[in-house]
Amino acid sequence: MNQTSTPLLELNHLSYHYGKQVAVDSLDLQVAEGSFFGLLGPNGAGKTTSIQCIAGLLSQWSGKMMFRGEPFQPAENVEHRKRIGFVPQDLAIYDDLTAMENLDFFGRLAGLAGAELTAQVDRALELAGLESRAKDRTGAFSGGMKRRLNLAIGQLHQPELLLLDEPTAGVDPQSRAHLFDALTRLNESGMTIVYTTHYMEEAERLCDPIAIMNAGKVIGLGSAKQLAEDVGDPNADLETVFLSLTGRSLRDE
Ligand SMILES: Nc1ncnc2c1ncn2[C@@H]1O[C@H](COP(=O)(O)OP(=O)(O)OP(=O)(O)O)[C@@H](O)[C@H]1O
Asked: How far does the signal peptide extend, from start to end residue (predicted)?
């Protein structure tokens, strides 16, 4: 991991309310450059809301966000937003367009043009394993292929920080393995990743560190091994860690 002393992203007391509903409750997090950072928690923990604040989709948050030590205002500042890639939980692709047309369209939206756009679209197709389907309409794609394209679109402009919100929902095992490989490749190439999931197996396999979220707060932080040691059972899996921290199962939904 390429650690520097200043975190790539820092959240200080980040909070977000939907009316009276507190979704994110004074979150403090530091994401080191080069890390594959996991946000693990059950449905309703506040993962999506946190990531939407960082992505600039939500603007009415309170607290402070810093990017490379500078104040970060992604909802207001387009230059800040360009540093971020966002792969949303809901698929954001056009079924009537081919894979290539989708990439071309979203690449232009991300500010790419000319030879750079062509090169990034080619790289994205390869990353998603969709070269042979580039000219097929995406409406005919399987759920897994759509998810792979969704990832390819989010990282087209090679952002410094890639945010993924539950990217394996409805994905077959083959596409899941492909997504994991693609994300590992991106991370090894230096891209910092924040990955939200409610699957402990995914967090355990991919992420270090892992922040365990519950009711809008981080209740545990560290590698899977550190988290197990922190609850006094070095052999505990993340399910057991969560149970020990909250008194309830991560799988309860
Ligand atoms: N648009 C909204 N209006 C009102 N309350 C909301 C809205 N979106 C989320 N919430 C509430 O905010 C809290 C945090 O939700 P959030 O979606 O951020 O959690 P999550 O951990 O991402 O869960 P999930 O995996 O189900 O999306 C929950 O109590 C949820 O019901």
From this structure: none
CATH of domain 1-83+161-171+197-246: 3.40.50.300
**Predicted confidence (pLDDT) per residue in 192-234, tens digit:** 999 999 999 999 999 999 999 999 999 999 999 999 999 999 9
Instruction: Specify the residue with its C-alpha closest to ligand 1, atom 11.
Output: 23
Within 6 Å (CB) of ligand 1, which residues are found?
18, 21, 23, 41, 43-49, 166, 198
**CB atoms closer than 10 angstroms to residue 195:** 26
Q: The whole model's pTM is what?
A: 0.94
Place of tokens 């004074």: 26
The predicted structure's pLDDT at residue 53: 98
Q: Residue 206: which residues within 8 A CB-CB, separation 6 or more?
A: 36, 38, 180, 183, 184, 195
The full set of domain ranges for the chain reads: 1-83+161-171+197-246
Q: Tokens 């967090």 label which residue?
A: 203
